Amino acid sequence: MKAFITKYALTKGIIEIEAVEFKDSPGMIENTTPSILPITYFHGEGRDWNRTREGAVKSARLMRDKKLDSLRKQILHLERLEF
After folding, report:
1. What are the structural domain ranges in the chain?
2. How far is the C-alpha of 56 from the C-alpha of 14, rounded, in Å?
3. Tens of pLDDT, residues 30-64
4. CA atoms of 27 and 47, how far apart (whole Å)
5. Regarding beta strands 28-31 and 41-43, do their DSSP bridges make them parallel or antiparallel, or are they unpaired?
């Protein structure tokens, strides 16, 4: 099956791989294309990987928005510092 890896979406982008799903562990897949991505296992469908590109894009956008919110808070904190 095709899987879209979003675990590294903010650094490497969305990566498409071929994978096999574990029957005993729902939501866990094994990468069968190590030439594309050397990491073997991914956990958490909808978090680290998605079945569709649309789902992966949605997850990546959520990750981006959370990171931007975190950075805005850091900037605000730094701007309030007085020396």
Report:
1. 2-80
2. 7
3. 999 888 888 889 999 999 999 999 999 999 999 99
4. 10
5. antiparallel
